[in-house]
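A quick aside before the break. I want you to see a complete sequence-to-structure record at least once, exactly as it would be stored in a machine-readable document. Don't worry about memorizing anything.
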Amino acid sequence: MLENNDVLRGAEEFYFAGNQTGVLVIHGFTGSTQSMRFLGEKLAEAGFTVFGPRLIGHGTTPEDMEKTTYHDWVQTVEAGLEKLQSTCTEVYVTGLSMGGTLTLYLAENHPEIKGIIPINAATHMPDMNKYYDKLSQTDKRFVDGIGSDIKKENVKELAYEQTPVKSMGELKKLAEKVRDQLPAIEIPTLIFSSTVDHVVPPENSQEIYRSISSKERSIILLENSYHVATLDFDKELIAGKCVEFIQQT
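That is the input. The structure line, written in C-alpha cells, reads:
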C-alpha cells in the first residue's frame, strides 16, 4: 500500500534499542504513535527494546487511510513483531484501542509471544457497526473523527479530524475476526479497561477477559481515564504496571 503524503510531525514510528526483551507498542484506529510514545519511553527506560510502528494509512491524511484495508494494518504489526524477534529473545505486545485488537490478533497467530497487554481493545462495537451499516448505503466518504476522548484537560491526541467510512468497515471486519478467535489465546495477558469510555464499550475488555484461555490473566480498571488512557490521568499507572508485568512474567 503506497502512501502519497508526508508523515505528520509526532506521528513517526519510534524505536529504542535496549535489552533482549522486546516490546511492540501499537497505536489505535485513526490515531498515531503519539498516543503511545509516553508508554514506549517508559518501557525503554526500564531497559526493554521498544518499537512503535506507524500503521499504514495513519499519521498522514484520512484520504490515505481510506485506501487501506485491515490487512495493511496486520502487515504493519507482523513486520514489527518480526523486527523485534530478529534481535530479541522474547517479545511482548501492547496496544491501544484497535492497537489492542491487533495485539490480540498477533497473540492468536503467534503463540511464541511472551505476553500481551491490550488497552481498551476493540472487539465488538454494536453502535459503530450499526452506524457503518447505515453509512455504507450512502455515498458519504468521511464522518467526524473519534480522537481525543481524554478526561484530562488540554491534552490532545494526534488523530484524524475525519474518519473514512470505508475504514470503519475494515475495523469491523478485523474486530469480528479477532473476536471469533479469542479462545485461541493462551499466553499471559494483562488487560486495561477504562470504566468510562466514549469510543469502545468497556464490556469489550470484560468479554476478552472471559473468552481467552490464558491461565495467567488479569484486568485493571482505569477509574480516571477515558478511551485514550495512554495520554490520560492513568498513563503513569499503565506504564508502571506494564513494566511490572513484563519483569514478572
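Two observations worth writing down. The mean pLDDT is 96. The helical segments are 37-45, 62-66, 70-85, 98-109, 126-135, 165-180, 203-211, 235-248. We'll return to this after the break.
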